[in-house]
Design brief:
This protein has 180 residues and is mainly α. The protein has 8 helices and 2 strands, in the order ααααααβαβα. Strands 1-2 form a two-stranded antiparallel sheet. The longest helix is centred in the first third of the chain and has 20 residues.
Length: 180
Amino acid sequence: MKKGSAGGRATAIILRSQSLERYYRNPNLCKNCGKIIKVKESAKVAATRRKVFCNRSCAAIYNNCKYPKRKRNFVTIINIYNEYTDCFENKTKKEVFDSCKLWQTARNMIRKHARKVYLKNIKNLVCKKCGYGLHVDVCHLTPVSKFPDHAFIREINNINNLIGLCPTHHWELDNGYLKF
């Protein structure tokens, strides 16, 4: 008998009905709702036998109850960050750059420390040139690259070397169009 003939289809239908009969004698029950996990029209019985939940909704409800979301303690994260940036004050520029794997990571840590120092001393964060206050960068009047390697971070991020500028005026300062 050739594959795809009427006799072959009839045999496949009989085998499927026997598999379904065996499955429904001892069906899987959903772990969440306890209902029988039904075999879909196009699904194989073996695939249904491996299922644990009747649908995605039951799986989500079960897993969200069993493994609830962790509540993050942001105060702890802020305290860790503050301790991490405070230790930079007594390090030299070279020590900071040597301790970080990437150049940009060290630069970002110096920039974050500068913002912290600026906000601690100056409460009103607005652009010193135009007064814009929605997005203000804390900039170094003397660039970090101009300081020698033995300069301490507290010297680089001295409040007298920091200024708040909007992105446009920050670009102008960095490219020599703006002087203070």
